[in-house]
Design a protein that fits this description.
There is one protein chain. The protein is α+β, with helices and mostly antiparallel strands. The protein has two domains: 2-128, Creatine Amidinohydrolase, Chain A, domain 1 (3-Layer(aba) Sandwich), CATH 3.40.350.10; 130-392, Creatinase/methionine aminopeptidase superfamily (Creatine Amidinohydrolase, Alpha-Beta Complex). 33% of the residues lie in helices and 19% in strands. The protein contains eleven helices and 18 strands. It has helices at 2-15, 25-32, 57-63, 77-80, 82-88, 102-111, 123-129, 133-156, 163-176, 237-256, 263-279, and strands at 19-22, 40-44, 48-51, 68-71, 92-95, 116-119, 187-190, 209-215, 218-219, 222-223, 226-232, 288-289, 313-318, 332-334, 337-339, 348-353, 363-366, 369-372. The strands form six sheets. Strands 4-3-2-1-5-6 form a six-stranded mixed beta sheet. A three-stranded antiparallel beta sheet has the order 7-8-11, covered by helices on one side. Helix 1 (2-15) crosses helix 7 (123-129), helix 8 crosses helix 9 (163-176) and helix 10 (237-256) runs antiparallel to helix 11 (263-279).
């Protein structure tokens, strides 16, 4: 964590800041090494103070970076913070204008009227965008946990399960393998419900058709985010065509990702393939995004501006979220009755863009199927294509 604070101090010097006031949980974890959703930090050019109340003080003393001075605040900020401000001679303080509410900011200014407050904008997010090798290993571990949970689910899934039970099983398997909590609310949506990009699992039996699962694990504060699409029943020709279109678009985009390429150019590669296959208007989101650890930098997309990828950046590349359009074949399954939606195909691959050289994360083997670190081959490993082709087309057929 000392390296993280060092990088921040280099930027503080450029901005002429005496200190930075940290309030967001993700940046608190990044700078202190301690996960405290209700903690604060004051970082000066020479010292780092970590404030934790009685609920977290013991854990903070054990887990926070040794370079941090851990303090349990007594009273209001004028009692515990003002003396430090005066002692350190602090006048210009950077603050997290992205996450700090207007009300909290007004109270902070009222408590420290002698200080000038400078908005940090995207500074901390830009620092965090470039990961160290240690951070990457934690992300890899989080992804391994999610992969293993998915493999365990495939052994246990039954046609009489509900969407809620599938989501619960994924979360249980991830936690069993060391995930502290899911990266986000787990999605498991089937049949007509699979066309909802961020649909909520229902307490209904799995419908025939696509089953889309979006889930991730958390390892020491670092997250994974993976999407898998399998078939309940047997895939027909149109489902295979849709799936293959998504795969072709994703592979083409991955082949083009490298440092210096604009997001819009990479997005266009995938979008042209999808539109050219007759699915124009069904790719309603950007090509990719950062992993879900609180970063707010632009993703890869036609509307993400000309932001260029940094070395060490991971991108989750995705194609076709919601697939619901009146011009598309109304051949979805809804309790055995044709519904207004066909469903959707989604899968994601995490990618690292190192300086000058494009490469994916290393691949490990699980039986005969490749299971890449950070799911570089997500969507074609495991059940996805294997169960969409030939005689292996039955994933969970109750008949």
């Amino acid at each position: 964590m000392g390296m993280h604070i060092k990088r921040l101090r280099e930027e503080m010097a450029k901005l002429g800041l005496d200190a930075v006031w940290i309030t967001s949980p993700e940046n608190h974890l990044y700078l202190s090494g301690f996960d405290n959703p209700d903690g604060w930090m004051l970082i000066t050019m020479n010292r780092a103070f970590d404030f934790a109340d009685f609920r977290y003080i013991e854990a903070a003393k054990r887990e926070a970076d040794p370079d941090c001075t851990v303090i349990m605040p007594q009273g209001g900020r004028k009692v515990y913070l003002l003396p430090l401000i005066e002692e350190e001679g602090i006048r210009r303080i950077g603050y997290e204008d992205i996450s700090l509410s207007c009300r909290s900011f007004e109270l902070l200014k009222a408590d420290l009227p002698q200080c000038e407050f400078v908005p940090l904008g995207m500074l901390l997010e830009e620092i965090r965008a470039v990961k160290t090798e240690d951070e990457i290993e934690k992300i890899v571990r989080a992804q391994r946990i999610a992969e293993e949970a998915f493999e365990a689910l495939l052994k246990n899934i039954r046609p009489d399960m509900t969407e809620t039970e599938v989501a619960d099983e994924l979360e249980y398997q991830m936690k069993k393998r060391g995930s502290r909590k899911p990266s986000f609310d787990t999605i498991a949506v089937s049949g007509s419900n699979s066309s909802s990009p961020h649909g909520v699992p229902r307490n209904v039996t799995l419908e025939k058709g696509f089953l889309t699962m979006d889930f991730g694990a958390m390892c020491e504060g670092y997250h994974s985010d993976m999407t898998r699409t399998i078939v309940i029943g047997k895939a027909d020709a149109e489902m295979k065509r849709l799936y293959d279109t998504v795969l072709e678009a994703q592979l083409a985009a991955l082949a083009a990702i490298r440092e210096g390429e604009s997001n819009a150019a990479m997005d266009k590669i995938a979008r042209d393939i999808i539109d050219g296959a007759g699915y124009e208007g069904c790719f309603g989101h950007s090509l990719g995004h950062r992993l879900p650890d609180g970063e707010r930098l632009p993703g890869i997309g036609s509307y993400a501006g000309e932001f260029e990828d940094h070395p060490g950046l991971r991108q989750a590349v995705r194609e076709i979220y919601g697939y619901s359009d009146e011009r598309l074949p109304a051949r979805g399954y809804s309790g055995g009755v044709l519904g207004p939606r066909f469903g959707s195909v989604r899968y994601s691959r995490h990618y690292r863009v190192p300086k000058r050289v494009q490469r994916g994360f290393p691949v490990r083997k699980a039986g005969r199927q490749p299971v890449p670190a950070l799911s570089v081959h997500a969507g074609i490993e495991g059940v996805s294509l294997r169960h969409l082709r030939g005689g292996a087309g039955r994933v969970c057929d109750g008949g």
